Amino acid sequence: MTIHPTAIVDPKAQIADDVEIGAYSIIGPNVSIDSGSWIGPHVVIEGHTRIGKNNRVFQFCSLGAMPQDLKYAGEPTRLEIGDNNTIREFCTFNTGTVQDGGVTRIGNDNWIMAYVHIAHDCQVGSHIILANNATLAGHVHLGDWVFLGGFTSVHQFVIVGEHAMTAFASAVAQDIPAYVTAHGNRAVPSGINAEGMKRRGFTPEQIRRVRNAYKTLYRQGLSYDEAKAAILAEAGEGHAELEPFVRFFGQSARGIIR
Description:
There is one protein chain. The chain is an alpha/beta fold. The chain has four helices and 28 strands. The protein has helices at residues 194-199, 204-218, 224-235, 243-251; strands at 2-3, 8-9, 14-15, 20-21, 26-27, 31-33, 38-39, 44-45, 48-51, 56-57, 62-65, 78-81, 86-87, 92-94, 103-106, 111-112, 117-118, 123-124, 129-130, 135-136, 141-142, 147-148, 153-154, 159-160, 165-166, 171-172, 180-183, 188-192.
């Protein structure tokens, strides 16, 4: 380990041999940090927090602090961060609550920019980009490959489906289906994330099917239940690109943005 002499690392913390910890950082007793990770200066990591491999945590982050929830009574809830994440300056990630699963979870290969807040019990997938000042209230779920524009705010218990995207300063109060782009306060749908799909190798035919699913949801005058049934029937014909809709419909309970 390369630990700056001004850092305070509790002897009970589990730190891999090659982890670097910068000046004035504080690591608590119930923290584990796996190999290849770099912790910058002035970082506080506390609570029951597990950080995986090859993560980069920049200065002034606070990871694993108690949830901002009046019901919290000191239970040993957790924060789990996967591998290969970049967490930029002034980010705050809280542990979970016993009223949910007891864990806030961050996946792998995420790019999380400065001043992002991830509240208690959030479930954040992998390959996600959270731009500066994106804010997740408690119990938010983000699917893989989501992109949230700067200053996006997401209401508690909202689900954002895989490959969805928001514009700058969006205020999201209801669920965003997979692939859908959204903008505004309150956020409304504005098409599909076709450019992101192209960059991830989706074929023109796959993009066409996703666009047709969007039209089924928003352009054909169908009820939500009718649109869901139509998309699920199409997905049942073996079109893998529609599976994110299936997963989204299985989770969504708040209603979708309109």
